[in-house]
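Exam prep: given the inputs below (a chain plus zinc ion), describe the expected output before reading on.
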Amino acid sequence: MQTGDPKIIFGADYFPEQWPEEVWHDDIRLMKQANVNMVNLAIFAWALIQPDEDTFTFGWLDKIMDLLAENDIDVCLGTATAAQPNWLTEKYDDILFVRESGEQVAPGSRQTYCVNSPNYRRAAQRLAKEMATHYKGHPALKLWHVNNEYANKNSMCFCSNCETGFREWLKNKYVALDKLNAYWSTVFWSETYSTWEQIHTPRASAGGRNATKLLDYKRFLSESFYMLYMEEVNVLKKTTPDIPITTNFEGDWSKFDHSLFKDDLDVVSWNCYPNPLDPNARKWVALRHSMMRSLLGKPFMLMEQAPSQVDWYPININKSPGLMRLWSYQAIAHGSDSVMYFQWRASQKGAEKYHSGIVPHFGEDSRVYKEISNLGNELSKLQDIHGSTIDAQVAILMDNDSWWSVDNPYGKGNKSLDNETFWAANGQPFPTVLLNYFGELEYYFNAFYNLNVPVDVIPVHYDFSKYKVVAAPLLHMIKPGFKEAVETFVQNGGTFLTTYFTGLIDEHVGVFLNGYLGPLKEVLGVTVEEFDPLPLDGTNRMIMAANPDGFKKEYGCSVWCDVSHVTSAKTLATFGEDYYKDYPCVTESQFGSGRAYYIATRPDADFMHDLITKILKDQKIQLHDLPEGVEIMKRKKAGQEIDFYLNHGKDAIKVELPKGNYENILTQTPCKHVLQLEKYGVAILRRIDENGK
Ligand code: GLA
Ligand code: ZN
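Solution:
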């Protein structure tokens, strides 16, 4: 994306409509002072722009657009479709989405619309068209911001429009009802459909539901969001073909399949809200930055982060001094070309009044404004980073279908062992409520991240042949073509890694017979006969078969044990307890010139460290065992490496540098041998020669 001069974008969501006009001039003054170069405008302004069905009023928006243009502040213009006006909701009774209980959501908030409401969609498209026609050629307009956080609150709708749409989608997919009955295995519990009209939305029923149907429904809604997006995109592209387009994603990708958007986004942008109370916040963030970067394989935008506290965790602590700056640089280090915030000025009224803003209620003479304007000034001097890339040699595969078929509500903060909640999320009972697709993906990501190795997180159907190591934890579903892709990858020297609860079902949710791991049995050289979930605090032992270099004699493991048999693989470790004592728990298969690993349990972190270290070393991938809390990431531009050192710790620390001469780009000072990082300190280094060039 080109948004003007090469620079790091710095700015915020800006809601001038919440303030009297005289404040706008003060806003501009403070923005200039902070080096703000872009704002997100009009995101929730539909009702103001279109007060009734036949009237569009752009007066106030024109004024602020002009004011921003005069001050060289670019605009990422919202299409304003995320919160529809009351007149629209009142006029058409299908606008508001319907909950699984059958109750229609009450108006009075945002994201209350049904994704398949034709009346909402027509109105949204019309608004986008009016916006584009009106602002075509405006000097401030540099980027479109379509809607806002798709599916944030309205990811699942059960209304009659969705039901009809679902039937059409199914007809398209299965053509004949017989085929649907076969793929959905409706012979089970007498579910056979004899007319399409008997198919309803998959609401909670008396007990387990049809998991294939539920999965198809999630696929259908996912595509519905994509089509909704495309209706606006088509209008914008037609009217303003030169203006790039984005929509801001959340960090939770379970609500829809984000890979559907891939070819129709000019830049990925996202809203990053880690909880400063979470000791692993930096890992939480790193994984999500990696997902955003990997979707298009190019720099992304940090579209929103909190200037200090948010208002929607149960307890919202501030970002203490220095933390906001550190996390801003962490975003850049992971591939962001922007640092933006929600929001510019803390609201005086409305539901989000206790959410921090760059200009807090206290005003400009505040810690938060000062820290942010200092950062803005610092970033405005950073010339060499915009557009640089990250070369990851490791990829983790992410699959929405596998996720949707073992989604774990506990992973989203529900810690109680409530079986019903787990069933409801997946439509059917499971061997254990401790299965957690995204949790496992996160566990593997962290194992690489802890060794400071960049990891791309790519959708499972992407081409992964360019990587050296590919991990696919808990890949419940194996779809056509995947077996061949993995086999070719390993054959050609790649390292593949997978875990328990992988390869159990096909794309129609039918279990693979004659051994789990299904189509991956050959490449892994192992097959699974049965599985044994462990009790909540249950453990087993992992005994290393030989005593290979870099490993201890034994480790602990939990959650799950597969009872498996090797065919052609080598057993690296066996279980130490239970009737499957001495059965394999980690195997390594030589396949062509590469290797494929299978891990039959959830190993403790020390094993993960040792195994991932071995795998990286075997593949000659550079890892960095840095002091706890220190992170390094490298971006590359025109053959030059830019090294980001980030100290997430609360104490100053010294880091030994690899041999060579460096310049710290932030301080413009040379450095060598040892780098001193303050609490939350950041250094950005580039190599220079003896003469400082
Ligand atoms: C989301 C939304 C914003 C705002 C913030 C608050 O990211 O996109 O409009 O509500 O959350 O954290
Ligand atoms: Zn609906």
